[in-house]
Predict the structure.
Amino acid sequence: MAHSDGSAAAFGSRLLGPVDESSGMRRLRVQLLLTVPLVAANLAGMAVTFALIGFVLPGPTIFTRELLLLDVIATPGYSALALLIGMWWGTVSGLRALRWATDPDQVPTEAEQIAAAAVPRRLVIRQAVLWLAGAAVLTPLYGVVEPALIPKILLGIGFSAIVVCANSYLIAEFALRAVTARVLDAAPARRRRGMGVFIRSLIAWMLGAGVPVALSMIVAVWALVDSSVSTARLAVCVLSLGGATLVFGLVLMMQTVSATIAPIRGVRRALRQVEDGDLRVTITVYDGTELGELQSGFNHMVEGLREREQIRDLFGRHVGREVADAALAGNPSLGGVETEAAALFVDIVGSTTMAATVPAAEMVAILNRFFDIVVDEVEEHGGLLNKFEGDAALAVFGTPAALSDAAGAALACARAIRRRLDATANDFIAAIGVAAGRVVAGNVGARQRYEFTVIGDAVNEAARLCELAKQDDLLLASANTIAAAADAEATHWQLGESVTLRGRLSPTQLARPRTAGPQADRGENRTDEQRESPRSDGLSP
């Protein structure tokens, strides 16, 4: 299947690689996309914490001689230790949950699916534990020396922890899209787990804007209660937290919007391909929210369209594409209409002898080659191959699809079939008859089952001309058909004698192609058995 947005962006971003990437390269890519951004997010959070406690929030300063050892050793030491523990803890737990993903052919079990879907949440929980542990360790150490620092440290660490953890969840979801795609592919009917689009957007707003604004409000209350907080300090707090709101709110909202837009963009591109007629397209389902259901729903829709197109194609092969299109476009019913049309009847000569002497497999191969030529030329000239009957076929021109020169199209088709048979068919001979006139075309049968057919004198006449052509030049038409055809085609034919065809009361004047061909010699060399009368199962009455 072709991917709608290219194999390199099947997961919504080229950073995630193509679908057919090797397992080793996929593992390295996921590891880098998880480790590097998560470490960067935590380092940025530590820097923000230091700036808030050291320069922004009101209260006593941490840059004193009594706190020097804590500033130089305890705080940096715990930060480095927490980073190392977080990297080791996250890597070990992630590899344990995603071990099955190293084998591209392995289908995850239900337990493995649940564990893989929980990886982003567990990574965030581990980070939150380390941030809370930092608050639990550093707050008492600073509080023993300066108790007034306790609220300041708790606010600084709490603000950064919340924003970093939210950012980390979105990073993990992005990095694990390829794994999520395999989980969803393994259990397409399983209910989606995790946050939906609404909750994801709400959390992004709350953490990107709500938390900084809430912290600003706390500082404002602090300033009202504590008269020692100067106006300048309050202004610095408001400006700093306002800047943090703009920066962190923008980052979180960009991540949320990107995660929402990527699946929609993929579906939109796929829809354009479907509009262009490409039904081979499919979308990689990698989102566990309602957007994943949208992706999956698109794939189900295209699968239904493919099945419908296959049925339409099969239907068209059985009854003819014009008949199939007319049936699908309207509400077909029993009955017919009278119209002008041309009929072409073609039949293999000596079929009884062939059926008795030629092996069945070889006979089928002969018929397939024969009908391949007939169908190809009939469709090329705008006709409808209406019936196959044994080794014979009936084609009609001018119904159900109208033709400006139905008689001319039938005559040109007959000459084209004759040329191709003379050039390629060395193991069988076929005769052709063409006639034009008024016919009744429509659906004949019962309400439960019916077929499109053409009934009329022109059809009977074409069958009788084909019968006579077996003993003549293998291609005969009626003079009325030549008269009904345009001059461009009529000039290729010459009129001959008149004969009374079997079962008819009035004589029919014959017409033959002007150019003499190999069919004359082939007709003279036929045996008596090949000059057999038409079979009782023929299409003509």
Summary: DSSP finds 17 helices and ten strands in the chain. Strands lie at 2-3, 281-282, 335-349, 384-389, 392-397, 429-445, 450-455, 475-478, 493-499, 508-513. The longest strand covers residues 429-445.
